[in-house]
Amino acid sequence: MTLQQLADYASMSKSLIYKLTSSREIPHLKRGKRLYFSKMEIDEWLLKQKIKTVDEIQNDVDNYLAKKKC
């Protein structure tokens, strides 16, 4: 997918995408001066950016504490 396609798909500005690629925070390919993105890698990356709910955080804490007691 191209830069413009990613911007439309992920509802992100092109300038933000450029910033993320220059800091190597988003998976991408560069051929010459053009940037390309794998839809599968972008979908995985977007899912990793998910913000956990309070319940998910509490569950992580409970699991961590349960493991420490052993």
Automatic annotation (TrEMBL):
Q: Which InterPro entries does the entry link to?
A: DNA-bd_dom_put_sf, HTH_17, SinI_DNA-bd
Keyword Signal belongs to the record? no
Q: Which UniProt keywords apply?
A: DNA-binding
Cite the GO molecular-function annotations of the record: DNA binding
Q: Does the keyword DNA damage apply?
A: no
Which ranges carry the Helix-turn-helix domain? 1-49
Q: What is this protein called?
A: DNA-binding protein
Q: Which organism is it from?
A: Gramella jeungdoensis
